[in-house]
Amino acid sequence: MHKALLAAACLALSSLPALAQELVLGAVVPLSGASATLGDDQRRGIELAVDKINEKGGLLGGKKLRVIVEDSGGRAPSALDAAKKLVTVDNVPVVIGEYSSGITIPVGQYLVQEGRVHLNIGSSSGKIRGLGDGSFSLIGLDNVSSGFAAQDVVDNKWKKAAVIVPNNAYGQGVAEQFQKAFAALGGEVVTTVMYTEGQTTYRRELQQMERSEPDVYVYSAYGKEAATINRESFELGINATPWYAIYLSMCTSDADPKFIQGQYGLDLNYIGPDGAAYEAAYKAKYKEPFKTSFNGYGYDAVMMAAAAIEKAGSAEPKAISAALKEIGNGYKGATGDITFDADRQRSKQPYLKLKIEDGVQQR
Amino acid sequence: MVQFVVDVLIRAVDLALIAIGLSSVYSLIRFPNVALVQYATTGALLALCLQMAGLPLVVAAIAACALVGIIAVVLNVIVFERLLRAGSAIAMIGSLALSMMFSAIFLVTAGPRPKRFELEINPPLRFLGARLTEHQLMSVGISALAIIVFALILFRTDLGRCMRATATNSVLASATGIDTRKVTNTVVFLSGVMAALGGIGLSVKGEMSAQLGLDMLLPVFAAAILGGLGNALGAAVGAVVIAAAETMVTNVNFGPLFGASVLFIPAAYATAASFLLLVVVLLIKPYGLFVSEVKRV
Fold first, then answer.
1. Mean pLDDT, to the nearest integer, of A20-37?
2. What is the pTM of this model?
3. Domain ranges of chain A
4. A234 vs B112: CB contact, 8 Å cut-off?
5. What CATH class does A15-140+272-338 carry?
6. Which residue from A191, A194, A228 is facing B207, i.e. has the nearest CB?
7. Could you tell me if the ipTM is greater than 0.85?
8. Cα–Cα distance, A352 to A359 (Å, whole number)
9. Which fold, A143-268+351-362?
10. CA B102, CA B109: separation in Å to the nearest integer?
């Protein structure tokens, strides 16, 4: 009985951040589900930033920084549960996340409503722009990326494109923006397929697309779903037509190299001029080159939040938000120059044109 | 056109194996066993485990089928025989409960991520303009063979005669000296084997997940009901009809009607089409396309 009481008291004490000499932030990323590989890579970036800050002596005069990383499971309801837990139980001022736009939007809405700071590090739906004060994007939204993709496809002399994207906020945004940009450049989207997430086969969708006889297949899909699409396009023999990936490292993170040979695509330029030290730290800790292009955004998010807390001299969400707006003007992040526009969205986002040769991305 | 036939055939054999098992068990014990589709997932996962343990796929598949057959018999003896004493509706609800337990067990043991057999994947073979992978060819061949063997057992052996006699009138059958309980358990065993084979065939061609069985539930029931519940070979025909409906809906180009070059119904609506067909057929022929052994009495 006494022991149980003691344990309960200890538990109550340890969950009070004010008593512990540490500063706690939160993150919600997909550590399981279709985007698990990408979410885990986001976590790596976050971890590296926390290590770096604590090595330099922590924040606000010696407080250790800790980021609680919660799993969203790739599902909006569990992501919201995780965000609620971070806000109500851990009482964190800043939450980083999620990956997929369809999940980032409700999580962001909830955080803005609760008066916390939301940092988007992986989603690019245009709808994120409207989340409201307190929500920041460290990544360029899809009007920028789709325009870039359309130009690249036209430059490769492909006129008829068949598009396949997930049936969610992200996919709808990409499909709409790509069609608009591609049509403006004289191309034609001959068919658009919105696939249902989480299926074990996409054969029927691929066969429908094939009937439109495109010059190029343009796709954007989450890790494991993209792996299924790539395998089945190989099995159907339609990979003889060029494939173009929007966010190539997301589309190929779980694929067998044999099925993605020769694919074209764009990706985020994940290393800015000041990113060399970060890249070296990543390689040293995880013993491999960058797994995907999304880890750097996790790193930058933590570093920027830390800088904002130092600048504001407090961990109050309002103060952090105000400080972020000042910092976010030519901030030199690992992913390059981060400058927020009036809607707190990253205004400049460099991209890379890539092609897969022998299972490796070539610039 | 050839591609259409190939696609229908591939889908039909997947459905047919499980639908035949469902229908033949129904003919004997008069309740549709919902958990049967979960035996398909169990078969696929067991075969994967055995393959990962080092067995060649063929051996792993045979062992998994036998194991699932035994599981089916054990569950029949300890669960369904008791529930059936309270009525077939109770037994069906019991099988639904069992099926949910299976889902939970799959999630805990195998996890939510889809898995694949370790198989070499090669470019498709061309056959009269249609594409077919080796795995598809193999799976269709094995499934067709299994259906033929089952039909031969049903119509050419003593066991088959006992099965049909029990299905037609079990009281009379046992009065003539047939051990109806033994016959029933043999059929339950065969249905488990066929469901497992169906699950393995499905996974060889693509991926397996904890959802594999539940995704098959509605089309399999539709096929079995369409063929006349209780009529094993009717279920095979039902499977072909459902597969044709699903494939047709996603393959018809509505583009010319709306002035676009290509316009298809999204593939996610394929199952809805098969149900529309089921409803229409049942309105016209309430007992399914074929009169079953059960109804003949």
1. 88
2. 0.77
3. 15-140+272-338, 143-268+351-362
4. no
5. alpha beta
6. A228
7. no
8. 17
9. Rossmann fold (3.40.50)
10. 10
